[in-house]
Amino acid sequence: MSHPILTEMQSKIKKTVDHTLHEFSSIHTGKATPSMVESVMVEAYGSTMRLKECAAISTPDARMIQIQPWDVSLAKAIEKGIQMANLGFNPIVDGKLIRIPLPDMSRERRQEFVKVAHKLAEEGRVHVRNVRRDAMDSLKKADALSEDECKRHEKVVQSMTDDAIKDINQHLAHKEQELLAV
After folding, report:
1. pLDDT tens digit string along 81-102?
2. Pick from 168, 155, 174: which is nearest to 128 by CA?
3. N or C terminus: fewer CB in 10 A for the chain?
């Protein structure tokens, strides 16, 4: 694992897998998590910013997300941002707080989320394969490598790719199970 191409590939694959897992965490499973709304864009102070940059997000219980804006005047903008994000939530402004009760999920809605998870997983796998392709191209172009070293490094590249795809598939299976559990 000493070659710079392999080191760079490993870091790119790790970022790809981490991004895919973060995307999985934003899928609504019926249990409230702050990550469901933290990336919602809000019009504040003449610009657009993420919700997590202008409010504290918490989950007082498994069926409720609570948002406390740092500036109370942003409550209406936050409510509008959540509605515009089209997440299927109906925020309730309650004085200084915004509460989002999570609706019960129907079987059809759960199936939709499973399809979204599969799509996100496939995007992650495609990106991992693109990183593999780039690393293979770089290895073939590297003049300092002998043919044997190149073949050995290609096996390592394939092994890292297989491990990353296996990791994404395991997390997809876990997420699918979590989504379909009633």
Report:
1. 888 877 777 888 888 889 988 8
2. 168
3. C
What are the tens digits of pLDDT across the range 38-85? Answer: 888 888 888 888 888 888 999 888 888 899 998 888 888 888 888 887
Q: Which long-range contacts (CB under 8 A, 24 or more apart) does 102-110 make?
A: 102/28, 102/30, 102/31, 102/32, 102/63, 102/64, 102/65, 104/30, 105/28, 105/30, 110/179, 110/180
What the block records as the tokens of 2 is 């000493």
Contact 101, 116 (CB under 8 A): no
Domains and CATH numbers, the chain: 4-25+106-180 (1.10.132.20), 34-101 (3.30.1360.40)
**DSSP collapsed to 3 states, the chain:** CCCHHHHHHHHHHHHHHHHHHHHHHCCCCCCCCHHHCCCCEEEECCEEEEHHHCEEEEEEECCEEEEEECCHHHHHHHHHHHHHCCCCCCCEEECCEEEEECCCCCHHHHHHHHHHHHHHHHHHHHHHHHHHHHHHHHHHHCCCCCHHHHHHHHHHHHHHHHHHHHHHHHHHHHHHHHHHCC
CA distance 156 to 140: 14
Whether 37 and 67 have beta carbons less than 8 Å apart is answered as: yes
Look up the pTM and report it. Answer: 0.69
